Amino acid sequence: MSAVVEDRHGWVLDSRSLIDEGYSRCVRFKDAHKSVVKCRFKKQCFQMLRSHYDVSVSAAADGGNTGVLQKKDKPGKKRKRKHSELNQGEVDSQVFHEKIRSVILEGTNSLVDSARSLGYLNGETDAVKEPLPDQECSLAALCEMAKELPLVDEEEQEECVQLLVAEDGCTSHVDLFSRVTESRSDRATVVTLMGEEYVIPPHTAFLLSDFTRIQPLVHYGRTFDLIVMDPPWENKSVKRSRRYSSLPSTQLKRLPIPLLASPNCLVVTWVTNRPSHLRFVRDELYPHWGVEVVAEWFWVKVTTSGQFVFPLDSHHKKPYEVLVLGRYRSSADNPKSSSETSEVPVEDQRLIVSVPSALHSQKPSLSEVLKPHVRAEARCLELFARSLQPGWTSWGNEVLKFQHTSYFTLTPTDDRGDETTDDCTDTLTLASSSPREPSPSCHCPTAD
């Protein structure tokens, strides 16, 4: 069960279970053959066994879930700055932390205690000692190269929606960079794209492109009831690591949210703990799009034993991140717009507690916790995505990164159910039965 606990404070999520949903039986297409496999995200990616620092817990002071920072090695001599020497950003961070500290501490204690009573967050007992998958990813570089290709005409974009599995058989030769690709199968599929194998969830759509080539998503012809985004915020650690390219905050205003959002669409943005980023989202970005801020939530990162991954009062890093939730108001001069579509209220200051991934920038899926706040059969979109989710549309220049088979354990299974053994008829039938048909006149360019 992916949502282990829910109470008035929020949720405890099993992030790995959330990923695995929909992958129990996957159809694998390889070398013109089809087989059935079971896919599981690798366990070692979610084995945060210990805090990043040794923590001496002070139960009397904090209720048993926070402590004093104690490094294993003797710290080197370093000049301590006086409080008066803190810069404005650090002062703002401390003020914000003090404001929400009790919410984080009390909520986390309650949720972790409930999870432990169910046998979860009691510590990992069967740790996997295998190394983490290689996190090198060439997708962003391929997107950069694809910018040299001519843009597809708007007419063609509106008419052409390409299927993941081609109509001529089990192979997948699709244009990933300028067309939205759909998988309409009821089952996950393991396919070869650009010479690499990827696990694709059922009923999903995606566009692999950078910020300058997002137009095919606009021409896709859909609006969404839920939009989640994890922007590549500028900060010093990103620049030092060079793991991915960051995006200036002002560039985010160019995202076509008003063209992608349905009336009262719930817009959720992951924000770093940098106060300037939080102020920008609340005071500039959301008002620019016509989005009204309705709540702030917090993702709290804990070990498999339920301890904060960093001490709550650490000056180095905090064990939580912020999410800003807002509602898109389609027309400021139309008071009826908010009442025409039912709107589920969003509670403020809810917590999402989970063991974080050891993989850089892999966030937990929000599908489970946001479900009550959008209408049934809501259309969902993730921007700046690095993975896919069943039933969602996703966009980003690394949108397939965590779908690579190197992150999964693939186990052959003889349980074929109603799968045929000779061809891909069942998958193609599912595709052709979808209510959204590709245009007969559509001839999508192909890329190996």
TrEMBL record:
Pfam families: MT-A70. One of its GO terms (molecular function) is RNA methyltransferase activity. Residues 64-88, 429-448 are annotated as: Disordered. InterPro entries: DNA_methylase_N6_adenine_CS (IPR002052), MT-A70-like (IPR007757), SAM-dependent_MTases_sf (IPR029063). GO terms for biological process: methylation. One of its GO terms (cellular component) is nucleus. Residues 74-83 have a biased composition (Basic residues). Belongs to the MT-A70-like family. PANTHER family: N(6)-ADENINE-SPECIFIC METHYLTRANSFERASE METTL4, N6-ADENOSINE-METHYLTRANSFERASE. This is Methyltransferase 4, N6-adenosine. The lineage of its organism: Eukaryota, Metazoa, Chordata, Craniata, Vertebrata.
